[in-house]
Amino acid sequence: MKTRIETSDAPTPVGPYSQAVQVKDTLYLSGQIGIDPATNKLVDGFRNQVIQSLRNVDAVLNAAGFDRDNVVKVVVYLKDISKFKEFNSIYEEFFKDVSIKPARVAVGVDALPLGSEIEIEVVAVKLS
To answer: Distance between CA atoms of 72 and 85, rounded to whole angstroms?
Structure first.
């Protein structure tokens, strides 16, 4: 059985998709960009977009009863791969209290939805 996860603490999807879908003990989050859910607008600046994207990830995880410790895989899309080092320092802070860091891939892309500079996709699993 699959369950759609939805929370007002994360942005409303900008297309025909769910914020996340849970199948048994696994949660698949759609890519999160730096939209502030209070305004439904993309925040300004790369750093702010990274932070907001990660806040949105947290909001969806929490809505499903998951947390950062449950994250097993992260895919990061960067419009400007030269900002990888800056991204990595923010990402490292986000996962600082997680003992086993998730597997991750980061790729440079030509464009992202709504002119975003970053998009973050996550898979999380609850272990029994």
So the answer is: 21
